[in-house]
Write the structure tokens for this entry.
Amino acid sequence: MQDAGKGECRPVKIIAVDCFGYDLKYAHGEYVMSGSRAATTEVGTLVRLRTDEGLEGWGEITPLGNRYLPTHWAEVRAALHTLAGVLIGLDPTNISVVRRAMDHALLGGGYAKSAIDVACWDLLGKAAGLPISALLGGVLQEDFPLYEAVPLRSPAEMAAFVVERQEAGIHRFQLKVGNDPHDDAARTRAVVDVAERESLIVADSNGGWNLRAAQIALREMAGLPVFIEQPCRSTADCIFAMRHSELPLVLDESILTSEDVFHAKHAAGAVSINIKISRVGGLTEAARMRDLMQELDMMVSVEDAWGGDIVTAAVSHLAASTRPENFQNASFMNDWTDGHVAGYSPRSVGGRGSAPTGPGLGIDVSAQGLDPIFTIDSKDAG
């Protein structure tokens, strides 16, 4: 990653950490994944870091239910409360020091740490007078393609969803599969039948198939113009499942570290990885993994599990600074939810997104209407 270059970062100190809560509703009714995992409203948590220079940095973490990734909103808030005290007095623009302090204070807690990490990047950009995308190497894509997930429903309903969203300019779709493999193949064929020529289709099991079910589904999907995403829970089972399939593999939930990226490429033969910023602990590690994937000539997808404007802004900066030839797609979660704490910004246009150009995240977050959870300042930390 490049240095900020222009603009000088004056040392600043964190004087207070505020935690807020809010609820985010899914824009299309019910979001359904494999294994009867469904969401209509999720509990979000926002972090605000305040500095002695009057700057504010924002981060967000919104887990998707209780059975998707190994985290929970109450666990996140408990971890944030533990971490908040060690942040007081630190320079948030020295992100390495902040991350070391968090790791010393708490083993694990990566989802909570991710919100703090993003808030530090927001403050670094504001202190330097630069957008985060500039700090991540510079904008390589003024705009980039977005995908939308297709909730697991009947084949006809999923096909109709795709037709409707194509009319809105979306041409990249992640189909939720991972239940009965025969039914999942029928769902995929139904969507392929209505997909426009430029549309990209990914059949995403979210690790919902066991090895045998994955083999059946892959056999029935053979020859379809689709990617297969995370067919089984572990990378090892994905390798076995894909052994006799020529469909391109995308990995997601089983990839947590840079070491996992190497394994995905050289052992699993994956062509792409979905980087969820909160799953890997924040923008710092997400950017490191993104850079490695580019060097390995893999395709990069950038997203998060759930969220609103803050998550979307973080995603946009990582996406904008990714090489176009290695970029598959991103998701703007604020199109999927009503988490509009920054006036629905950034906003997609015709199925494409772009990164804000203002300093830091480049959005103006309002705490109005949010539920205060706690505030930790120097008095509490001392």
Notes: Residues 14-129+366-381 form a domain with the Enolase-like; domain 1 fold (CATH 3.30.390.10). Residues 291 and 322 are 8 Å apart (CA to CA). The radius of gyration is 20 Å.
